[in-house]
Design a protein that fits this description.
Elements lengths: L1 E6 L16 E2 L2 E2 H10 L9 H4 L8 E6 L4 H7 L7 E5 L7 H11 L4 E6 L7 H11 L6 E6 L3 E2 L3 E5 H13 L5 H5 L4 E4 L1 H7 L11 H16 L2
Parallel strand pairs: 1-4, 1-6, 4-5, 7-10
Antiparallel strand pairs: 2-3, 6-9, 7-8, 7-9
Helix pairs in contact: 4-6
Length: 228
Amino acid sequence: MTSGAILAGGRSTRFGDADKSVAPIAGVPMIRRVANRLAGTDDPVPPGAERAGGGDSVVDELVVNCRPDQREAIEEALSGVSLPVRWALDEEPDLGPLAGIRNACRAASEPYAVVVACDMPFVDPSFLAALRETAADPGVDAVIPRLDDRWYQTTQAVYATGPAADACDRALDRGDRKILAMADQLEAVVVDDEAIRSLTTERTFTNVNTQSELDAAERAVAAALGAE
């Protein structure tokens, strides 16, 4: 059993005045695209197009981490989503994604959470399913991809909710807000670049941080749908 934790509490400073989590991509709010891909109800856009649009969910619930002032807009964006939604609000905002992961793991009802940032609209659900399968191995607390064998993708990873939340607390208590400060305390499996590319493409990690990146994402969706 797995929770899908979507991190949306950042300030989106490079995006402008708007909250990027609900910015539309081809008419669908970005966070809804992430939620739909986890639920298997999104447009069949690669990578993982068949799983993304095939009605086969990779998680049993959604846990949304955001600031209290974001909730109304995000709740509207997620209206009618096919999975139950739990809320993990940042009562103390601006502590960064480490606190977001901690809050999401505390709110999750399942023993593992697939964590995805809200600005990853091309997240590959089949890849997430493979990470979750690895997390089922005995003694594994986290499964973290490492793109190009350099860049840890800590906001598209799987964590054991209890151990991860406790490790986040310890890191935050000592004033360390780096996600790796939490991951270093866990029994983690690092998925190397060769394994990543055998399962998906690096597009799964694409972030939308600016208006120009939003435009590029919209073009990518339109191109994928036009090629059907």
